[in-house]
């Protein structure tokens, strides 16, 4: 397995919520699990450190990065530009798929599965960017979503159901798309992302401290 594949595997694991901010990675165990050499794993670690997903601390090891408030704002700003454009002009938009993710998120919300809500919402946003047909944008979105998962894990410690209020907005987006109103759907999506970003100062507690 090449280091690029290992990098993608670890990034997907972070996006899935398998790791938590500040968690130390066991290099030997992870290399064995992925069936790669430690040199290959270290190459992947270097790439993920450069992407801001990992942090190497001298004499201590490699840790999952902990997001800052400024990091979170930047994630939302990037998404506010990228996702509405993909929703508006994407040539591979699958409205039925988006509707399925929203339905699954609604189900998770009903049974109190906040982790499941976060997963389905990530699937929703990933599918929007995938509509662009660009592998470059897909890779960038995977990186952003991995960072977003770390942010959601942190914010969930102080605010329950952080994503729940937005599910109704996503349902509205799907309904607009079903009616062929892509411009209106893109506007709702951008407004939702921007409002979330602008509320971070209130939502993200001032006493948050990075774990590493």
TrEMBL record:
* InterPro entries, alphabetized: GntR_C, TF_FadR/GntR_C, Tscrpt_reg_HTH_GntR, WH-like_DNA-bd_sf, WH_DNA-bd_sf
**Segments traversing the membrane:** none
Q: Which UniProt keywords apply?
A: DNA-binding, Transcription, Transcription regulation
The answer to keyword Metal-binding applying to this record is no
* The keyword Repeat is assigned to this record: no
Give GO MF terms, alphabetically: DNA binding; DNA-binding transcription factor activity
Q: Which residues form the HTH gntR-type domain?
A: 1-67
The residue range of the signal peptide is: none
* Pfam (any one): GntR
Q: What is this protein called?
A: GntR DNA-binding transcription regulator
Lineage of producing organism: Bacteria, Bacillati, Actinomycetota, Actinomycetes, Mycobacteriales
């Amino acid at each position: 397995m090449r280091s690029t594949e290992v990098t993608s595997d670890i990034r997907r694991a972070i996006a899935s919520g398998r790791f938590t901010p500040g968690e130390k990675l066991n290099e030997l165990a992870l290399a064995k699990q992925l069936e790669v050499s430690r040199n290959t794993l270290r190459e992947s670690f270097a790439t993920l450190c450069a992407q801001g997903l990992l942090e190497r601390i001298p004499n201590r090891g490699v840790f999952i990065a902990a997001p800052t408030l400024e990091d979170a704002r930047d994630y939302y700003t990037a998404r506010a530009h990228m996702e509405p454009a993909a929703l508006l002009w994407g040539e591979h938009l699958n409205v039925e798929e988006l509707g399925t993710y929203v339905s699954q998120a609604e189900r998770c919300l009903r049974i109190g599965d906040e982790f499941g809500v976060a997963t389905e919402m990530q699937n929703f946003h990933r599918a929007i960017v995938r509509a662009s047909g660009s592998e470059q944008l897909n890779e960038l979105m995977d990186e952003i979503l991995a960072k977003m998962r770390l942010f959601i894990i942190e914010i969930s410690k102080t605010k329950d159901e952080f994503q729940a209020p937005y599910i109704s907005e996503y349902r509205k987006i799907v309904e607009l798309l079903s009616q062929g109103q892509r411009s209106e759907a893109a506007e709702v999506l951008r407004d939702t992302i921007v409002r979330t970003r602008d509320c971070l100062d209130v939502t993200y507690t001032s006493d948050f401290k990075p774990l590493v």
